[in-house]
Amino acid sequence: MEKRQLKPWMAVIFVPVFWIDIFILSGLFGRWFGVWGTLIGELLLIVLAVGIAAAFRADIRRIFPLKRPEAAKVGGTIVLWLGTFLAAMGIVGVLSYFFPQQMLGAGEDVGSVVMTLPAWFSLFLVALTPAVCEEVAFRGAFLGCFRSIRNKWIGILVVSVVFGLFHGSIWRAIPTTILGIAMGYLLMETDNMFYNMLFHLINNAVPILLLLFLSMMPGAAVDQSQMAEIQQQMAGGVSLMVMAVYLMYSSGAPLLLYIGNYLIHRGQPGYTKGIFPREKRWQLVLLLVVSFFLFLMGMLLMFLSTIVALA
C-alpha cells in the first residue's frame, strides 16, 4: 500500500477530534477516574493522532519521526528553551501588570493540581505525559498536515496558535503559542520529535521542580489562609518593579535563541564557520540592539517605580 503525505485539508479532521478529547472526554474521564482521567485523555491523543494518520494511509515514520538524539542538538534544545522561556516571561510580565486577575486565573488550575500530588506523579502527569502525547498530536499529526507547504512558518504558526488556544484561556494561549512556535521550529529543523518533546518536558518540569525545592526549605509550608492572601495580593496587580525585572530577564532571550539555533544546526551548511562568523555580524549587532533595548526599558521602568514609591 502506497504511503502518502498528510495534506492541509486533513487538519480539519484532527482539530475537532482533538478538541472533543481535550475539552469533553478529558472532563468526563476526570469525573470518573480523578487524576487518572487526565492521563487517559492524554493517551487518547496519541491513539487518535496515529489512528487518523494511519486511516489516511500516511507514512507514520515520516509524520512521527523519532531518531537517536545528538549531544549538540540536545544542548541547543535546552538553550533554545531558556531563550524562549525568557522571551515569554517578558510578555507575561507586561500582561500581568495590565491584566493581573486574568493572568492569575490562567495559572490557578495547573498550580492546584501540582500542589495536591506527590512530586514524582506531578512530573509524570504534568511534564512527561503532555510532552509525549501533545507533541505526537500537535507537532506530529497536526503539523504534519502542513509539512508539504513550502513555507514552513505557515504550518508552525497555525499549529502554535491552535495549540495555545487549546489550553483553555486566551491569557495562557499567548505564552503557550510562543513556546509552541519554538517546538514547531525544532521539529521542522531537526526532523526528530525527540527534541520538541524534550523542550516540552523541560518547560513543564521546571515549575514543578522549583515548587518542590521551595517546599523543602525551612518555614516554606503555607496554609490555605496564607495561600488565599497571597493570591489576593497577586490579583491586585503586579508591581511596576516586577514588570521591570521581567523585561530585564527577557533581554537575555535574543542571544540565547541565536546560540540555541546554532547548536541545533551545527555542522550543517551555513553553520560550519563557528558560532559568530563574519558574514553574520549584522545578526549579532541586531541581537545586541534588541537586548540592550529590553534591558534599558527594564532599567527605566525600575527607575520610574522607585520614583513613584518615594513620592
Mean pLDDT: 87
Q: Helical residue percent?
A: over 70%
Largest sheet: none
Quickly give the structural class.
mainly alpha
CA-based shape = globular
Helix and strand pattern: HHHHHHHHHHHHH
What integer value in Å does the Rg equal? 21 Å
Describe this structure as you would to a colleague.
The chain is mainly alpha-helical and 311 residues long. The protein has 13 helices and no strands. The longest helix is centred in the last third of the chain and has 30 residues, at 281-310. Residues 223-236 have low confidence and may be disordered.
Brief account:
With about 300 residues, this protein is mostly helical.
Topology:
Layout: H1 11-33, H2 35-55, H3 60-63, H4 71-98, H5 100-115, H6 119-144, H7 152-165, H8 170-190, H9 193-215, H10 224-235, H11 240-250, H12 253-265, H13 281-310
Helix pairs in contact: 1-2, 1-6, 2-6, 4-5, 4-8, 4-9, 4-11, 4-12, 6-7, 6-9, 7-8, 8-9, 11-13, 12-13
